[in-house]
Amino acid sequence: MPNQPHKIFLKGEEADFVVFVEDADLLAKYRKNDTTIPIIDIVSIYKIFANRSGGAEGVFDEASKSELSNQFGTSDRDVVIKKILLEGTDKRQTTIHRGYGGHNDSIGNGNSGN
Predict the structure, then answer these.
(1) How far apart are CA 9 and CA 44, in angstroms?
(2) Rounded to an integer, what distance in angstroms lies between the CA atom of residue 11 and that of residue 22?
(3) Global model pTM greater than 0.70
(4) Share of the chain above pLDDT 70, in %
């Protein structure tokens, strides 16, 4: 099994927020106030995701600027990602759902169409 990214989860008031981290060791160094580490080296993808139904599981969409402003007082991604990295909880054991992708659902169950 390939190395799974870590979900760094922060509970919000109207939505919950997540950033993905590949290297937990880099995150640990960053949390110990190692400011020499660029954020882009810590996060897997430079985006903030929101789960509007709550929790560390479920469907994640990219958080809007208004959601970030309402929750964090700013829509500056650098500031918000830093806050999530420093205050969030590592939810490594949670899974990342990539969705269901059927081959051709119109054919029916068990029929390959060939």
Answers:
(1) 14
(2) 21
(3) yes
(4) 73
Query: What pLDDT band is residue 97 in, cutting at 50, 70 and 90?
Result: very low
Nearest to 102 by CA among 92, 88, 114, 112: 112
Question: Can you give the three-state secondary structure of 33-92, one letter per residue?
Answer: CCCCCCHHHHECCCCCEEECCCCCCCCCEECCHHHHHHHHCCCCHHHHHHHHHHHCEECC
Structural domains in the chain, CATH included, are 6-90 (3.30.1250.10)
82 contacts 68 by C-beta, under 8 angstroms: no
Strands of 61-62's sheet, edge to edge?
61-62, 49-51, 16-21, 6-10, 89-90
In the chain, the largest separation of any two C-alpha atoms, in whole Å, equals: 60
